Amino acid sequence: REIAPGAVHLPGWLTLGEQRRLVEACRAWAKGPVPMRHTVLPRGGVMSVRTVCLGWHWQPYRYTRTADDVNGEPVAPLPEWLADLGRRAVADAYGAADAYDPDTALINFYDGQAKMGMHQDKDEESDAPVVSLSIGDACLFRFGNTETRGRPYTDVRLESGDAFVFGGPSRFAYHGVPKVYPGTGDPATGPASGRLNLTLRVTGLR
Ligand code: MD3
Ligand code: FE
Fold first, then answer.
1. How many whole angstroms separate alpha carbon 102 and alpha carbon 203?
2. Separation of CA 41 and ligand 2 centre (Å)
3. What is the pLDDT of residue 97?
């Protein structure tokens, strides 16, 4: 369902098997070569989510090939099977097998207290869609507008297995995660507790 032009929510899109596979893969990526960590912002703030990246390493507010702000190691590559999952999501959202070629994944882990304030994703030099995959505890996702951090916005509950594709006029909209609903996920398919979100992106960098 389209919640705004180009913003398509695909509830229950991942199979339980795909969710388990992603959780297993995330466990390994969280260990290294660059360990999952709380990102420190330029003015000293510390993000409550923990993040690990594939392909390109995101640091506020640019992408690099090595994790200069963590341990200096080159980031792990984005596996082709994960890019394929992104292509399938874009095709299912827009009904077109568009040539979508993500080069980066950002993997965020939310414990029960973590949140993400309203922001735009504009460190990419591409207007290709962002694909979001959610696993584990449900959350409140707030989808805003391209003009301001504030209203109007649409609140959507994201559940384990949901995909969301943000392209076209929605690509540079403000968005955030005001809260996670602890204990709503199934530890048999998701993390023991908390929420994982993977976003696939095209950085436009080389
Ligand atoms: C709408 N992550 O990593 S995913 C982020 O659940 C981020 O971890 C949130 O915002 C999370 O930057 C939200 C949904 C999402 C991701 C990227 C977008 C929505 C978006 C980019 C443009 C517009
Ligand atoms: Fe974002």
1. 8
2. 15
3. 65
pLDDT, tens digit, 9 for 90 and up, residues 58-84: 999 999 999 999 999 999 999 999 999
Question: What b/e sequence results for 26-41 when a residue is b if at least 16 CB atoms lie within 10 Å of its CB, and e otherwise?
Answer: beebbeeebebbebee
Give all domains of the chain, ordered by start, each with its CATH number.
2-201 (2.60.120.590)
Q: Which atom of ligand 1 is nearest to the CA of 110?
A: 8
How does pLDDT run across 4-40, given as a tens digit for each residue? 999 999 999 999 999 999 999 999 999 999 999 999 9
Q: pLDDT per residue over 183-204, tens digit each?
A: 999 999 999 999 999 999 999 9
Query: Are 44 and 60 spatial neighbours (Cβ–Cβ below 8 Å)?
Result: no
Minimal-distance CA residue to ligand 1 atom 7: 176
* Ligand 2: centre distance to CA 171 (Å): 10
Which ligand has its closest atom nearest to the C-alpha of 137?
1
State whether the beta carbon of 104 lies less than 6 angstroms from ligand 1.
no
Contact 7, 17 (CB under 8 A): no
Residue nearest to atom 23 of ligand 1 (CA): 171
